[in-house]
Fold this sequence. Notes:
The complex is a heterotrimer of chains A (341), B (264) and C (278).
Chain A: E1 4-8, H1 10-22, E2 27-33, E3 36-41, E4 67-75, E5 80-84, E6 93-98, H2 100-114, H3 120-127, E7 129-134, E8 160-164, E9 170-174, H4 177-185, E10 190-192, H5 214-221, H6 226-230, H7 239-243, E11 250-257, E12 260-267, H8 288-307, H9 317-321, H10 328-336
Parallel strand pairs in A: 2-6, 6-7, 7-8
Antiparallel strand pairs in A: 1-9, 1-10, 2-3, 4-5, 4-12, 8-9, 11-12
Chain B: H1 2-10, E1 16-22, E2 28-33, H2 36-39, H3 59-62, E3 67-71, H4 73-84, E4 94-98, E5 104-107, H5 110-117, H6 126-137, H7 140-151, H8 159-163, H9 188-202, H10 211-215, H11 224-237
Parallel strand pairs in B: 1-3, 3-4
Antiparallel strand pairs in B: 1-2, 4-5
Helix pairs in contact in B: 4-5, 9-11
Chain C: E1 9-20, E2 23-30, H1 33-38, E3 46-51, E4 55-60, E5 71-76, H2 80-86, E6 93-100, E7 113-119, H3 123-134, E8 143-149, H4 158-166, E9 171-176, E10 188-189, H5 192-199, E11 206-211, H6 214-226, E12 234-237, E13 253-254, E14 257-258, H7 259-262, E15 265-267, H8 268-273
Amino acid sequence: MNTQIKILKSANYIKLLQKLFDHKKNIYGPVRQGKRIGYQKINSANELATDFIIPDMSAKSFVFPCIEKLFSFTKDKENVEIQNLNLDNIPEKIIVGIRPCDALGMKSLKAIFGRDPADSIFQTRLERTTFIGYACNQADDYCFCTSINGGPGNTEGSDILLTKTDSGDYIAEIITPKGESIVASAPELFEDGSGLDKQKYLADVPKRFDDSNLENKMKAAFDTNVFDEYAIRCIGCAACAYVCPTCACFDIQDRTKGSKGERIRTWDSCGLKLFTLHTSGHNPRETQGVRWRQRLMHKFSYMPERLEVRGCVGCGRCSRRCPVDMNIAESINIITDENII
Amino acid sequence: MIETAKKLLKNGDVNIVIGYSEGSQGRVRPFFARNEEEAENLVYDNRCTQNLAMYVSKKEISKYGKPAIVANIHTLRGIIRLAVENQIKDGDLIALHINDKDEMTVCSTLEEIETHLATVTPQISDEDKVMIEKLDAMSLTERRNFWEKEMENCIKCYACRQACPLCYCTQCTVEVNQPQWIPVEASIDGNLEWHIMRAMHLSGRCISCGQCGDACPVGIPIHLLPMKLSQEVKNIYGSISGMNRSEGCAMATYQPGDKENFIG
Amino acid sequence: MEQNIYLPYRMKIVKITEEAPFVRTFRLEFINPEEGEKFTFKTGQFAEYSVFGEGESTFCIASPHTRKGYVECTFRQAGRVTTALSNLEEGDLIGFRGPYGNIFPIDQWKDKNLVFIAGGIALPPMRSVIWSCLDNRGNYKEITVFYGAKTANDLVYKHELKEWEERPDIKLYTTVDPGGETPDWKGEVGFVPAIVDKFAPTAENTIAIVCGPPVMIKNTFPVLKKLGFADENIYTTLENRMKCGFGKCGRCNVGKTYVCKDGPVFTAAQLAELPNEY
Lengths: 341, 264, 278
């Protein structure tokens, strides 16, 4: 559908949320809690944080939770009964305040989980989630969405994108039918905004590297020492992967209580040494340099080649949160610098 | 410091200097100089609080040979503790310690480090002191609720373990699955089990550098657990970890005079 | 509603065979006969086997696709799941999810000689191919099997090895590592690559299939090349660590190649294109 542009006055935005609460919708949004800022279930618009760059964790857990039940089972001495997951029980959710980078991350996740065989659990979660995004009016030096074809006002993945204007009112872009149905729940709150330009309200995010021909540059770097050199300080934790909006690697585990149990999938990371370790003791990715290479190659070479989408949206979380300042944009910049390869 | 580092590298006294360099957004980051040219990038100032002692046991670093290590007090204590636990021995490394007055001491032996540490009183930050007092003042239930609430945020990324100079085990308990002592997934109970297990394993060993808390990407003050246990060990056994090789291992050594007031 | 791709079939262990120390074969039948009737696989494919409450483990389907109504798997007790599997008895239930991965293109091998080279616990994937070919024996010319293990006791499928030894339409060379022989051992003594070199099978109109630990594969390829085998005519199967089996969990890739989706069967020519991450 064609994007429609509307005006949503700031008072009307509060009314819209109120209406959604009245309709018993599950609404989640960025909430400040001490030093933290994270997506939480809210019951009132007052709870929403207003001044922030980006929530600490990405929005991926709404569609790919840290722990996801795959099915349940009951087990006794003689028999095992399997109870399939009832996808009808997956609730509808509205996420407000998602940043354009996090929304764009849904495209990468969709490519991974949608590829044959399609993952119906992920797909159902995504189908039942509506994203009302906030365009970015501020950024920090870790943000690099503009370097990988995203941007502070990018609409991809959002159902509605709100851009705050100087007056505090919003330019509302209605992007998808899901977004339209939100408007339809309170059409009187939206005014025509055709012709309005959000551009001047957006944060300035400079390019941190040149992404032209990036896939080939990554391939050319594979056998060089750039990855080992950059990862020399990497301590091999999974922080980067778990805060990433597109990292989707997982482990499958069983957990039981008495005769009942469930099979779950749980976040995992290529940065952990156990990830690829064989029972024999052989490890195809033995060193942290090789594991860092896997992380970058997967995002900027393998995914584009196999799934036609990059595994990075330039949110910069991995770099912000890294205990030893591993900076992904800097690492890519070193690789794309022709002089080094 | 840069000149000393260059000289050590030039003379072949060390093969690598573990230190700090400028990083992103005004941060400093761990840095590894393997030649004189690289040593030009070393920096040292009050931002350099990270404990670099954990790099000594990483094979990606040890493969280069003997290191010199730019050491704040935490790092010095980490080195001594690693020596107590037989992870390093005299002559394995050279420590370049810079004190508050910006004076550098080159410690080529563990004894020199100990001599220096004998002149300092180990301290924890005011912020940590306040938090520990606050937790102490809580009832058991309140404290349990506090940590359970914090555990909701834990994503089990193991940044705490990886950043810790004393978490050098080649196989961590969480990596053992026969039996599976601690669940793999980041469930609240499992997270609590993991962090209690780690704190217990560090009790009497933790040097209170606060690295685990600093490393946490979701801001859990997880360093308070081993830090508090260190205080307890100090109160009960009088032992402070990471000061002198004679300190031994309070929790792993039986003394006939040990208090038994924790029983019953 | 679309199907849950993580849902396993429930299978009953109808027969357990002790193959070697810590190595067992399970014959599995579907609890739900309808599922069994619909189920098909091709030789070379693998599956996820699970003990409910302990988790899943990946190994090949060791029975040939020419035999219907059951599947067999052979595994060594090593990790948490295989230990739990080892504690099961005939009649117990396990989970089975699959088949996954690509296949050995045995239809393309018609009228060719086949040389199978296996080491240790890597005979099971090959056993599926060998029986699939033996069940259509007329399609192939000479079939030769080289199989080695650390000791005579570590050889798996001992009763089948005996059967192959006695059959006139298949030639079998068994070998054990030096020191692994028993007093009555009549086979060869030496590492697999050396035994292949010694008996020098012809490369002409021949397909070689190699399965074994990485070090055996690494040392066998040069021998085959010396004998004149082209990389396109040498097949192997990779066993990278896997969890999901269908290209999502992110573990098994070697460069951009996913062992679970693009493999596990590769030719030596394909392997040469891959980075050394397996």
